[in-house]
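quick one, two chains, predict together pls
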Amino acid sequence: MFESPSIAEFLADSNLASTLPGTLLLAWTLLLVIVDLFTDEERQHWTPILACVGLGFSFLANIAVYSPAEGEQVALYGMFIADEFTGFLNFVILVATLIAVLMSWDYLKRADIHRGEYYILALISSAGAMFMVGANDLITVFVSLELLSIPLYILAAFRSIKNDGSDQALKSEESGMKYFILGAFSSAFLVFGAALVYGATGTTNIPQIFDIAVGIVGGTSSGTFYLLVGTALLIVGLGFKVAVVPFHMWTPDVYEGAPTPVTAFMSVTAKIGGFAALLRVLITGLSALVLAGGDVAAWQATATIIAILTLVLGNFVAISQRNLKRMLAYSSIAHAGYIMVSVAAAGSASVIDAATQGALVYMLAYMFTNLGAFAVVMTIEREDGSGGNIDDINGLAQSRPLLAMAMTIFMLSLTGVPLTAGFLGKFMIFSAALQAGLFGLAVIGVLTSVVSAFYYIRVVVNMYLRDSEGELQPPLDTQYLRWAINIALAGTLVFGIFYPLATNLVSMVSIA
Amino acid sequence: MDVTGLSLTTITLFLPLIGLAILVFMNGETQKNNLKWVAFVTSLVTFVASVVMWINFDPSTAELQMVQRNTWAEVSLGESVINVSYFVGVDGISMLLVLLTTFIMPIAILGSFGSNIFEERGREKLYYIFLMLLEWSMIGVFVVHDLIIFYVFWEVTLVPMYFLIGIWGAEERIYAAVKFFLYTMAGSILMLIAILYVGNRSGTFSTYSAGGDIGVIEKVQNFDGEGTYWDALGPDGEGEDAGFLLDSVESFLFLGFLVAFAIKVPIFPFHSWLPDAHVQAPTAGSVILAGVLLKMGTYGIVRFNLNLFPEATVAWAPTIAFLGVVGIIYGAWVSYAQDNVKKLVAYSSVSHLGFVVLGIFALNSQGLQGATLQMVNHGISTGGLFLIVGMLYERWHTKEMADYGGIWKVMPLFGAISLVISLSSMGLPGLNGFIGEFTILLGSLGSDYLGFAFTLFGTLGVILAAVYLLKMFQHVFMGELKKPLADEAGYKLTWYEKAAYIPIIIMIFWMGLQPIVFFNLLDVSVDNIVAMFVG
């Protein structure tokens, strides 16, 4: 009775080709595990090089799969969807991973924790994120979320593999542990939420959830109640991952303790994965959840409140931070708030596309800018991990003018000053919020970005306007790190100056 | 109308960037002495280009001239797609302010020639790069007619000015620079919200019509439904009654723009960043700040608030004009109380810009013409005053008025020049300041929206201006010489100092004696705007 299908049939039925960017990266990584096993100390640098090659192949696969305008394709029997949304975010994730790999090489050498497994874990996590952005089923969301997160737990604690009892090693261990426990905790929320939604609709397939929810909502069955509770739990679960208030408590400690390149990497990929899933689940699946008497999705109010809390708390607490990594951690919370603004805007049916596109462009801008800022922080960090305080960059413009210039541009982009990518992102997000009639939210959004200007500009002040006290460290050997900064800088400026590049890339995106 | 070719406006706008590019590729150490020349020649060429624009300008039409428009990006907002376009062109008001900008720049650069700020702070190359960037963005603000690109230029002016104050300023420079940045940013970001709303609802970011697309201004003016254009497009889509101050969409949009501009001008309660920024900025920074940057605010009010929100303008006119008058009196009063020369000149800006605001919100032809002319007058005379203060400081290293005295005795030419500029600033008939202030007061007297009291208190400001400026002149130039310089050679004016004053003096007399040349430039453009408010 059970005939096992031939491989050709399986490939055709499952449409595996559409998942090529992610599967290829995963397969390459598994191969890399074996290769890494047999490389000796001398040829250690082969693993990161091969990792970059793998990213390159995946990038080409992404272009091959998404450049023909074939519209969306469902793969893996409805579990995975390959549309412009997936393609665009795959691109963002791949570039982010590439920059992160470049950043890591110098850092791991310096900290004397260079192991090939590091890159393998990063690539697995990246593949997880790529499956997550294409997840078309709550099960896929969960599985790919774990694929994304578990390597990150290990990476966060990676500094502690050299257990020398140093403060850094301890902090890193604590960071990994904290991240793991809270991550596991939040996964439970996600799964419970998925279970309730399944209970109400009888399916875990996201588009089907929509179809069935349309029938349930407004009816008298208890289905609406379960849908509401399920949605709330899904928001909580994914909210942990993207670190929005009030689910952000773990962020500063984890970000500060983890090795800096890991912090940079997870502050970008985990957020992209989380927001992609959030957008898919809420928009594609649950935008039908319109309560009687309302004309917007029921979760819009929740998203609005979360966005406001995140914006206010993230930006205000960042002001008082003296440590640059910690400041960037809080600022990344604030940026999650800006993306949340567009999630809230997507609650109005007519704005869904504009809001989604705004969120995507914002993630692109945030990826380049944030990674760049972290790379600069790594460049000035000392070997013992100190030197990351806001006073340690005093006079950087004198000693290393180009680095200071790059940091200035990253800070201006994070603030949202025109001619940088950050402005384009903010512009699109606030347009969407206005379009959705969320005036209060938009005003709070712009006011908090003035607050953010205060702490970003302080970095510029210290670099340009204050003189350094004490001896300057001789610059560390940072050949690959420099490339990471260059790529991030190019992205920030190119997408900031040539708006059409980004807007054209997302103009076809529609996940409603 | 040719809307795609490379227009003169574009050429003028981008000339400073060419200078900037040359500067970037020069070596800051070995070619140190050539840096200032590159900057100076660039600004001079830009000035010549703007004069060519003036020659080609036809003052008999209110239409934008020397227009260029290219689509820059398409932004999808909900169901509609909105173009953001590179849209430049000039009408009379823009033309005059572009001329002011290109006129002030070479003077400001000449003012930095002998400056000793580089001995201490160095980084000459960066300094001139920022000046070029500033010139580019300031011209941009005055010539673009797309709201988004306007916002881009508006924000970009912040960055070079911030560094000019922060790196080459006086002792409290960091505080002043950060205050300047945050204050201005807070205002402009509210404008961004208003801009996004305007674009969203009206379906275009272009303010004027060009190449078949209808601009926002035309849409507003041609609206003939119930209530006002903006209220008809309100969030609930139904017209509300236009009897507002704070109950209509249009009012909020008006305020969104106004706060940004009011901070820049600055209008009375928003002025507290100005004394700090002025006092701490290097001479060239102060000259540009007073000469051009402040005018971006008043220009913005004329271009956007009046054109886009006529009903709200009428409703708010008395309130804003009142703040203007308060600024006139308050600025003059505080100015009189200063012991610091630079602070005195800084507060005098608050007072003079109060006149401009009063003129604008008189909402008639004289008021607006006087206001625009006064923007230029103030740029020239206050720019000149800051140059004077800068040159005094270079020699005596103090800004306290009590330390000066008797300078006329040792520097008679400098004294005479300072006297002319001070008299111009206080509005002596025959000099340029008089023309502007007189026309503004005439406008406010004939205004349909302002009462007699506005003119009365405004006139008081003219008298107060004489009081504080004469006080300054007396303390600094009259009496006995208190602190002779160690080196007598310091009493001589260098050639570049003289060269900086010559054009200023020429303009002071030219605009004072033959104002018709400049009124002609403005006439039609201003009438086009006030047509909405008169009759």
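Chain B has one domain: 8-530.
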